[in-house]
């Protein structure tokens, strides 16, 4: 009597991944959407320049703490200030201003805010190649415009303005989320999730007297 042979395992079919071709126009459109969503988190400008909230920090550690908190809280406002400062430094050369604006837009749309692969003529362009291409384009723009040092000076001035503001602005009551507020003892760490943190100045306590 012959023993029945053990069933042989059938090798699994290889998994085939398919990708949907995305045109450069679609990539730029999605990048614009991401950029718009990023800018929508802009803090109100009156909050940035509110009077009565500036004073000298008590210590070096306090200054560093203010710098860290304000840079995170007003990061979009500061980015706009630095960009405007750099643009103003090139107002004497409209050609350089336009050229650098185009290069800056390329960096934003096809590098910093791009989520999808960039495909040209059916070939996917790697992120490293995109980075190398943008660096070469930037070097070419600097060489053609001749306004590099003016741009650097404008950016440095903008960074100094933002740094001084971040150190001098009192960061009390500024926090990004509930965990940040709890770590600074502004709210109880056991408070319910899903609600935005409220600064101490905006909370009202009621007492009942006999």
TrEMBL record:
Subcellular location: Endomembrane system; Membrane
Membrane topology: Multi-pass membrane protein
The family this protein is said to belong to: Belongs to the PRA1 family.
PANTHER family: PRA1 FAMILY PROTEIN G1, PRENYLATED RAB ACCEPTOR 1-RELATED
Keyword vocabulary terms for this entry: Membrane, Transmembrane, Transmembrane helix, Transport
Role according to the record: May be involved in both secretory and endocytic intracellular trafficking in the endosomal/prevacuolar compartments.
Domain of life from the UniProt record: Eukaryota
Transmembrane stretches, start-end: 73-90, 125-143, 149-168
Protein name as annotated: PRA1 family protein
Keyword Membrane on entry: yes
